[in-house]
Automatic annotation (TrEMBL):
It comes from Halosimplex carlsbadense 2-9-1. Keywords: ATP-binding, DNA replication, Nucleotide-binding. InterPro entries: AAA+_ATPase (IPR003593), ATPase_AAA_core (IPR003959), DNA_pol3_clamp-load_cplx_C (IPR008921), DNA_Rep/Repair_Clamp_Loader (IPR050238), P-loop_NTPase (IPR027417), Rep_factor-C_ssu_arc (IPR023748), Rep_factorC_C (IPR013748), RFC_lid (IPR047854). CDD domains: AAA, HLD_clamp_RFC. This is Replication factor C small subunit. Belongs to the activator 1 small subunits family. RfcS subfamily. Heteromultimer composed of small subunits (RfcS) and large subunits (RfcL). Part of the RFC clamp loader complex which loads the PCNA sliding clamp onto DNA. The keyword ATP-binding applies.
Amino acid sequence: MSEADTDSGSRAGREEVWIEKYRPQTLDEIVGQEDIVERLQSYVDRNDLSHFMFSGPAGIGKTTSATAIARELYGDDWRDNFLELNASDERGIDVVRDRIKNFARTSFGGYEYRIIFLDEADALTSDAQGALRRTMEQFSNNVRFILSCNYSSQIIDPIQSRCAVFRFAPLSDEAVAEEMRHIAGEEGIEFTDDGLDALVYAADGDMRKAINALQAASVTGDVVDEEAVYALTSTAKPEEIKEMVDQALAGDFTAARSTLDRLLTEEGIAGGDVIDQLHRSVWEFDLDDEAAVRLLDRIGETEYRITTGANERIQLEALLASVALDD
């Protein structure tokens, strides 16, 4: 191995993970959630936090907002006054009784309160949520809780009523594209317009997914283009999804099945991801409202069957067959 190859490998081994390197450190650095950031900033400015609940899909700023609040409140001491737990890993009642209560009981170095952040709180068991409710009452004088979840409906009402609820929406395409341009500029990466559009499409409002895709694509060539992005994210091109559905709508099931086979076999796209992309593209097909509603109904039925363990290929082929046979 040449010296240049050794240096290159050494640099690659020390390459930072970009989702951490470019994670916002303060609230005003968070993009795409301006209304929520403004409300959170008012709490921080008054140094008067209540219990918070952040709900919404992955990669849109929930965890980043929680850590940014702690950084602004505690400065360099934020790690000593901020306990982060992932409830999907530690979801039992013992976690609430032991780790959370022990943290809440300890001294807090002159600050009025400390923060406990429970990520993926919707994974907590019913008993653990009941214990958490009592803990929130018992230590409300010196601890503030921030709960993060994908589905707030999985959190019991007594906890929700004790929290100010912030519902984070998927990030807009413009917000994702702006951040991609910023990171590409910082890293000296060239990208094509199609490559940027592909990053935004593949991310579907998830900034973390977009940043990971950009970092992965940047090491595969000199320029980040559409082909690299779709290959690395296991995402079908929108035109491929449209081609498959158009073939089925035209009654050509064999051609539609062949396109599906290429997506699943040659491009390695998961059946669930094909369903997600179909759902996103329904209104882009040349369908009247009634036909679009029928297609959505079939997509929903297929998605349900796949998530309950049915064979992906069989269900997707059945979906295409029903579309092809539709009068």
